[in-house]
């Protein structure tokens, strides 16, 4: 009996640990449906960040963020930290920002895990109603 309870707790813990936004995610363009790149999401000093670690389209691998402003202006897109400063609030991570290297604009950001291998990434202005979402898939 005790062994069954222990095994059950271990399975619950394993399931809980696999339900995380941290790791590598394949980004999918919400307009074309094409795979664009891989973003690694990580935690640093209690905040969540995401960095572009791979660009899947060979013709875009050397591009720079020419439309970005401030410190990201003309930096290579590969290696760019596009998600900054999110914190966990219930099942959602928000309170930070995301930069779209395509247009150089920075938006407020909200991320929600949908199952263990799908991430809903929403960039918006003002309130979440005024924005767009992308679905990212966990890299296996």
UniProtKB/TrEMBL annotation:
InterPro entries: DUF2147 (IPR019223). Residues 23-138 form the DUF2147 domain. This is DUF2147 domain-containing protein. The lineage of its organism: Bacteria, Pseudomonadati, Bacteroidota, Flavobacteriia, Flavobacteriales.
